[in-house]
Amino acid sequence: MTTPENYTVIGAGHGGKAMAAHLALMGFKVTLYNRTFEHVQALKKRGGIELESSDAGVRGFGKLDLVTSDMAEALQNAQMVMAVLPSSAHTDIAKAAAPHLKDGQIIVLHPGRTCGAIEFCKVLRDQGCQADVTVAEAETFIYASRSDGPAQARIFRIKDAVPLAALPATRTQQVLDAIHPAYPQFIDGINVLHTGLNNMGAIFHPALTLLNAGWIEATHGDYQFYIDGVTPSVARVLEVLDRERVTVASALGLRARTAMEWLKMAYNTVGEDLREAIQNQPGYYGIKAPSTLNHRYIFEDVPMSLVPIASLGQHYGVSVRGMDSIIRLGCIVHRTDYWRRGRTVDKLGIADLSVSELTRYVNEGVIE
Questions:
Q1: pLDDT in tens, 202-217
Q2: Is the pLDDT of residue 264 over 60?
Q3: Is 205 marked active-site?
Q4: Residue 55's pLDDT is what?
Q5: How far apart are CA 117 and CA 164, in angstroms?
Q6: Are 288 and 192 in contact (CB under 8 A)?
Q7: 14 and 34 in contact (C-beta within 8 Å)?
Q8: Structural domains of the chain, with CATH
Q9: What is the C-alpha separation between 107 and 119, in angstroms, rounded?
């Protein structure tokens, strides 16, 4: 396929603005879509985004071709569609996009969390979308970034390597070829079960937040989230959750990275156990806790990360009592039913598939 020149970034939050500005500065034509126009009014007026960065090669004014809250307009000329928003919004975005998608377009979820691409494709099918589009997901978000103002963004770091997988996996190379002129950092993520089950935020974020709920509410997050929050008892819970995640992957025929392996790979950090490895990670020092329990570490990571892993575990015969405990704590604290709202195998449309059928679906796109 020809190298895509037209990118549409969906979502104008911290990540979406950083990505839109960076793509524009790299010379691509960029459309930025946000559901609420008031949120991007200043951007439209200015005609772009002022990008600052710790990386000297990425700074300046990123001129945008179009800023819109009209999905049809946003997708009109798009070749690559970058969805950069909380995974809890993926269903709404898929519904809004379905009538306007065209053959050959590529949609990448940044990131998919767990089963994001499976959910997105299911919604497109349910909406009667006939377009031959490719949906892919990144294992994590490529930037550490934040929005500094209505038309400003800042990039702290760009990750060196981010696994990416398409649904089906037979299309992953096509997506990598298309995205590499802009982002050579993306590598083959094997398939969307791999990217989804290597979701480290599912293990760290909800449990660390909920098990330190009293401290968060008393101090409004004025303590070091990973350094002070990972006490020996909390670390034992994290280790159980991690073991359950790796066992769910194993039941599906996958070899997932353990949290210890991930810390070694991402930060070259080691230790006798998980707590020591976290304490040995210099990048965790200074990171404050969330200031409130009304935070995406619960309202996004529980239904979109923990629930699908636990649901896969329950469905395919793995004990996930630790995960279920954290999910239920989240339900109680937020007075909501995250099992009902989350990505379960029923909601994802994969409840009738055996392990081999599920594997065939993610690898080849065939549902029998």
A1: 999 999 999 999 999 9
A2: yes
A3: yes
A4: 63
A5: 11
A6: no
A7: no
A8: 6-196 (3.40.50.720), 200-336 (1.10.1040.10)
A9: 13
70: annotated active-site residue: no
Hey, what are 50's tokens?
A: 């002022």
Among the listed residues 90, 194, 301, 315, the single catalytic one is: 301
Please spell the DSSP secondary structure of 208-242, one letter per residue: HHHHTHHHHHHHTT-SBTTTTT--HHHHHHHHHHH
Distance CA 368, CA 354 (A): 10
Report the pLDDT value the prediction gives residue 315, as an integer from 0 to 100. 97
**Cα(330)–Cα(205) distance, integer angstroms:** 12
| pLDDT value for 56 | 55
How far is the C-alpha of 10 from the C-alpha of 28, rounded, in Å? 15
Please compute the mean of the pLDDT values over residues 258-272 and round it to a whole number: 87
Buried b (16+ CB within 10 A) or exposed e, 86-120: ebbbbbebbebbbebbeeebbbbbbbbbbbbbbbb
Q: Is residue 54 predicted with pLDDT exceeding 80?
A: no
Across 67-83, average pLDDT:
97
pLDDT band at 156 (very low <50, low <70, confident <90, very high): confident
CB contact at 8 A, 316 and 355: yes
User: Which pTM was predicted?
Assistant: 0.93
* Choice among 14, 90, 194, 205 that is catalytic: 205
Handedness of CA 346, 337, 199, 53 (dihedral sign): positive
